[in-house]
Structure formats: C-alpha cells, structure tokens
Specification:
Rossmann fold; 6-stranded parallel sheet; 12 strands; globular
Length: 377
C-alpha cells in the first residue's frame, strides 16, 4: 500500500547541475517521484563538490554562506516540515553543514542530512576540536541517513545517537539502461569479444591500477578482451603508462570524463563491471547502475556492497590490492556463461529495490517520523 505525501512540505538542498558524482544523477528522479506522491517539494542549490576544479578558500566560504542564506530565505517565505540536505562527512562538510544549520535554526523544520559518503579516519579522529563539531552536527540534525551498516557503526562509535540514524538510499532508473545493438560496431568491437568496464574517479584507492595489472596477466593467457575506463583523475597518466608497459594499448580504452547519461550505454552493453575499490565508499552509484543494467559484477566486499549483494548471486568478491585474485575472478566469470546469466537476472531483480517509486515510499515514512523533531542551534 502506497503512502501519500499530501500536506508534507520538503525543501531539498540539491547539488548544482555541474556537480560530479552520484547525487546529481539520483536526486532529481527521487524528487520527481516525491512530487508524484503528493509531496510539496521545493529545491535550492546546496554546495556539493567542485566539479573537478580547484577552489580557493575565500570562494568556498562565500559559496557556503550564500547557500545558507538562500536556504534560510526560503524558510522565511514558506514553512517546511523537513529540510533535506545532501552531504558527506568530512572536515569541510561538517563545517558547511553546521553553518547551514545555524542559519536554519529559526525555521522550525527538521533537518535531515543524507550522507553520500564518509571518511572512516575522520569519524575515528582523536582531535577534541573535530569531535566537538561532529557531536554538534549529531545534536542539531533531526536525522542522519547513512549508506551501510559499517558506516552506521562508525557514526555510533563517534557519538551519534542510534535513534538519529536511518538508512540512506539511492535511486536508479532501470529504463536508462537499454541494450544497443549498434554499441559494438560503433566502438569497433566484434560480437564475441568480452567487454570489461571500470568507472570511477582515477585515484589509487579505486583500484584501477590493480585492474590494469590483472589484465596484463589475463593478456598473457591469450584471452581477448576490451577494457573501458570511464572517468578521469590525478593518476590517469600513471594508468596510461602502465597500460603501455604491459602491452595493453590495443585492449584498453580511456574515454575521459563523460556525463552520467552517457555512461548508461557502457553499463548496458558491457560483459562485466569490475570495481576493485578499497576507498571509503558509501554505496557507489556505479554498482547500482550495473545492477539496473543486469551487468555481472566483480568488486570488493566493503560497506554497502557487502550489505546488499551476495556471492555468487550478484557478484564475485575480490581481495583489495590483489591483481592475481582479480585476474582469477575475471577469468572465472568470463568462462562461466551460466553464472553470468544468473547474475544478470538477479541483479535486475535487486535493482527494483532502488526504483524511484520504492525509495520515495521509504522516505515518506522517514519524513513523517522526523517532521516534528525540533531543530536546535
């Protein structure tokens, strides 16, 4: 039975359309589904990320203050039940969110902080200054949404009351991922060559260098494949050099940064998604996209992936920083058509949990629960 959002007024702090990462992809369809359920939703741009560019401290401070003022002004024009802010949990985000909640202290609305990630080392900090500010966030927010059980335990250990934590959930639109019969010919790939896919910011902890090393070993066995790297980042040059050293230049393709919309075709038309991350992940959107596309997955057993996915139903687990294990699991999955087919069907079924309709219903329950909680300065 669906829940109506009638009489609920929500103000959502949305990332800029120029932002990178998951929020700009998953929040708009989520908001539209809330409106379809009868919720009165207003949006205001809230600082989230730097679109891959460096920003000086004065500009950062100015943007934070400007966003906080705009949110406050909206609450002076209209009364809201909940103010939903998309955020993360590190030093910069804690400072920003505290400033924002200070500006909103007279709004009378409950503030919900939806985490799109958190830094484990920061949650475990010994700094009295940062621990004080963390607890100030815990006290002021009506509720904090976290993406995994591991993250929940880290917040509890940092002093966040259990009753203030909820499950943050992303939206993925399955209809975005449709097989394209022309995809292979467009990229000059024959009908039988397996396509491996990696998509993330190019930093060491995402495991792309491990994947390149693993593919070096796979090439030596004589197996043919094409590997797409979607994205960009500080170690791209190092990655391209490693590809050349291992003789993989004809097998590996770097697309550079492409839009979230463009990545859908790669998820929908690849053979396996490979993501050997050991970063402090939340629930990487690239995994949700792979689920929705029915794409078999190889990844590490961390955070939300461990909560939602099972081996071999949805994925094969690999050890972090272990190219030999990674190569073995890629070969295993490529050699087993039956396993890939079953994994594909299971992943499409699992993705239904993250449809806009289902996630909106979950949030309606949450909003109604926290709507009367007091915002404290």
């Amino acid at each position: 039975m669906s829940i109506s959002g009638e009489n609920l007024r929500i103000l959502v702090g949305m990332p800029s359309i120029n932002s990178l990462g998951g929020p700009i992809y998953c929040e708009p369809p989520f908001v539209e589904e809330l409106r379809a359920a009868g919720v009165e939703v207003d949006e205001e741009t809230y600082v989230y990320g730097d679109a891959g560019t460096s920003t000086n401290i004065l500009t950062r401070v100015s943007r934070v203050l400007d966003a906080a003022r705009r949110l406050r002004n909206r609450t002076m024009e209209k009364k809201y039940d909940v103010i939903h802010l998309n955020t993360s949990f590190d030093e910069k985000c804690v400072l920003r969110d505290l400033v924002t909640m200070f500006f909103l202290r007279k709004s009378g609305a409950s503030v919900y902080l939806k985490m799109h990630g958190s830094i484990a080392a920061f949650l475990k900090t010994k700094s009295l200054f940062w621990r004080y500010l963390q607890r100030k966030v815990f006290k002021t927010a009506a509720n904090i949404g976290v993406l995994s059980n591991e993250e929940r335990e880290l917040f509890i250990a940092a002093g966040c009351p259990v009753e203030k934590l909820s499950d943050a959930k992303y939206v993925v639109v399955a209809e975005d991922f449709r097989h394209d019969p022309n995809f292979r010919s467009f990229h000059n790939i024959d009908a039988i060559t397996p396509i491996l896919l990696f998509s993330a910011r190019f930093i060491p902890a995402k495991g792309l260098l491990d994947l390149i090393a693993a593919c070096g070993g796979i090439k030596q066995t004589g197996r043919d494949f094409v590997l797409f790297f979607l994205g960009d980042g500080p170690i791209r040059d190092e990655a391209e050099q490693l590809v050349k050293q291992l003789g993989l230049a004809e097998l590996v393709r770097f697309t550079g940064y492409i839009s979230e919309t463009e990545t859908a075709a790669f998820h929908a038309n690849s053979t396996i998604f490979v993501f050997p991350t050991y970063h402090d992940e939340g629930f990487p959107l690239v995994l949700l996209k792979s689920l929705a596309a029915g794409l078999p997955i190889i990844t590490t057993r961390i955070r939300a992936a461990a909560d939602h996915m099972n081996e071999p139903d949805n994925c094969l687990w690999v050890k972090p920083r272990d190219p030999r294990d990674l190569a073995a699991q890629i070969n295993r999955l490529l050699d087993d058509d039956t396993l890939r087919s079953a994994m594909s069907a299971n992943n499409r079924d699992l993705a239904v949990q993250f449809s806009p309709e289902n996630i909106a219903q979950d949030y309606l329950k949450l909003y109604k629960t926290i709507a009367q909680k007091e915002v404290r300065p």
